[in-house]
Structures are given as structure tokens and as C-alpha cells.
Amino acid sequence: MELQLVNERRxxxxxxxxxxxxxxxxxxxxxxxxxxxxxxxxxxxGSGEHPRADAIFAAVRMQHPxxxxxxxxxxxxxxxxxGEARKVTTLHDSAxxxxxxxxxxHVVCVKCRRIRDIEIPRLDRLLAGQSELGEFxxxxxxxEIHALCEDCGAKRAGANRTMKARR
Amino acid sequence: MELQLVNERRxxxxxxxxxxxxxxxxxxxxxxxxxxxxxxxxxxxGSGEHPRADAIFAAVRMQHPxxxxxxxxxxxxxxxxxGEARKVTTLHDSAxxxxxxxxxxHVVCVKCRRIRDIEIPRLDRLLAGQSELGEFxxxxxxxEIHALCEDCGAKRAGANRTMKARR
DNA sequence: TAACCAGATGATAGTAATTATCATCTAGGT
DNA sequence: ACCTAGATGATAATTACTATCATCTGGTTA
Lengths: 167, 167
Fold this sequence. Notes:
Chain A is α+β, with helices and mostly antiparallel strands. Chain A has 5 helices and 7 strands, in the order βααααββββαββ.
């Protein structure tokens, strides 16, 4: 299995491209193109750090001293909704524990957050063979499969808009 | 790639086995075997729901009306430390965002929480072919590789105890 | 088996990330 | 220029979790 750290140099051009398309994508998503939103997506695309909301807030504040932290949270969330960003920390708002300590992964229903264990021996085997990854020493891994469970209406999947996390 | 939902029927015997070994494992980990800890691991092993701390608290409270929620949080954390449980929601205490919306996965340094993007086209391809998983309809997935980065001393890896999350 | 003490627990206050609320403002269409 | 749905800013509220600390107890030792 080929695992490849994404080259940092690709970020500049990628960000530039995304930025030029941003206004159009906003309108396609039914969103107004506000200076705050532009500043936030720009800060996000300009960072390779997978920043938290407060880091984006700090960065954006330099150009927009009046911006509110709530706007940053809201906007990041909105960007994820329209597919312009993603949360690295998917689908979980509070800690969930698992008594099963044999190697396994998880399927999570994106709607009701139900979790089921899955075993993928081949993935485990493949990753076990990968002890180095650039400057990282691999310790373990965890695959989270996002899914819709039967109860949450996988059938009318197209109709289901992204659900909101409950806290 | 074989993906296999873990059979629920396996949980009973598995829990029984783990429970009989629990006292020994505690002592091996240098922990006192308290009734609270027994009740918590029992509740965790008895649940297939990947419960949150408050659910464990509610379950344990029936037998131990005086138990404190803080104890439940602490104990679950401790159980993870000695390898008797794991967090489904690994390594993240607050949301981290990513402007890269091309399909990719992440390596996370378990110590400093630095995140880098990785591409694993073969994994993506294989999962793309898997649209059903038992009662789940697959939407997407995200692999998180746990690692130590150079700065965090991958060299003396053995010496590094599990780090605590900072909030 | 009694005494001891490191570590565990319970009660509660504190923290921090995120969300809710709501008055005000503005993007973008008319 | 004007209107209005939706966006923002200010701030309060929520909630998951951690810190603190006095009290208690498992398990070792005398």
C-alpha cells in the first residue's frame, strides 16, 4: 500500500486555485460572499497546521479586528457543510469509549452517531508493515467509516442534508 | 479488502474473559482493584454502544449510587492508559479544520498533536468499492495514523509514556 | 490482625470549547 | 436607493471534562 505524505509545496497553488473559485462556490451553496468568509477560507487555505478555530480567529483578526469568535466557529462549520473544508476531528463532540481492545476500526452513522466495530485484518497488516512515514514513526491507526445506518434512512440518502452535531 | 462487522454475539464471552482477567491486569498496571473500577469496566464491556462517560455513569450508579461522575471520567481515562479500553474519539480535544478537500487521510503526532495530510489512493479505491457494510451505507472514511514526529523524540520512543491530552 | 499510607474516591469549583440568543448590519437582488 | 433574508458581533449559556482537596480504603507490612 502506498502511503504518501502530501507535499507542502502543493499548498500554495492549491490555495490560490480554491480561492479564485470560492465566490462561485459560495453562491452555488446559497451563501453570501462576505469579507469575513473570504478572510476565514483564506486563513484556512494558507495554513498547513490543521488549525483550530481560535488560531483562525487570531489570524483573521489582524485584517478584521472586529470579527467575532462566534463568526469564526459558525463559518468553519458552514464551510464544512458546503464541502469547502473538513473537520479533521470528525463526527465526535464528546469522548466515546470502547471495551474491545483487539485491533479493529469503526463505522459511524453520521446521523445518529451509532458506532459499530469492524475488523479489517488486511488494513492492519498493511499498516503494520509501515513503521516510518516521512519524519513520523508510526504507532498505530484507526479508520473511521462514515455511513448511514438503516434506521437513519439510507434509502432516501440523497434527501438527507448533513446533520448537525448535538452536544 | 475484507471488511467485517464484528459479530455482537462475540461480546458476551469476550467480556466474561476480560472480566476474569481484570484484577490481574490492574495489579500488573499498578492499580488498586476497587469496586468502582470493577463496576466501570463491567459496564463498558457489557455495552456494545461505545458509550460516553455519562452513560457509564448512569449504568454504574444503579449498583453504586454514591459514585462520582469525576471517578467515571478518571477511571475511563485510566483504563485507556493501561490498555484496558480505548477512546473511539482519539487524540482530539477540540476541532481541527482542514482546507484540503481532496481525498486524503492524516498522521497525527500523539505527543504534540501535529497533523500532516497523507494520501493513500489504494485505500480510497478499495473503500470506494465497498458501498454497503451490514446495515450501513458507506459514505466516506478517514484514517488517522498515530505516530511520533521527529521533534517529539521518536528515537527514545520506548521511554515515552502515553501523553495526556491538554484541553 | 492491626496499623499504615499511597493512591483512590466524592464533592464541588473551575475551565474551555462551542452554541444560543438577539439586536444590528449588509450582500445582493429589485 | 431600497428591501430583506441571511450574516455578524456581543455576550450569555451550555456542557464535557479537569483540578482541587478533604476523606477514605486496598493492599502491604509489622
